[in-house]
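dumping this here before i forget
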Amino acid sequence: MILQIHPKAEHELRAAARWYEKQREGLGLEFFATVDAAMAGIESDPNRASRLETWFGDGDVRRVVLPRFPYLVIYEVINDIVHIWSITHSRRKPNYWKARRRDQ
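structure:
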């Protein structure tokens, strides 16, 4: 599997890591490591994660809930490519990222 991270998801990841780093030195790196572990799990078994319960469109959109941090990794497998659509705070408006699917 190839992981392809949407540029806006990359931005979300970096912004969240910066915010955590401001809260406590090293916490941003811990956040990065947690996201990295989630992505490794997605890459090894993309069907292991739950389907996104707020998604009612076409496709098989899934989510990984990060341990310790209130974030989700939202992704979809299309033609053997794992598209990471969003790295989002779990309290954020659902499906705000869905227009990103049209960008691909």
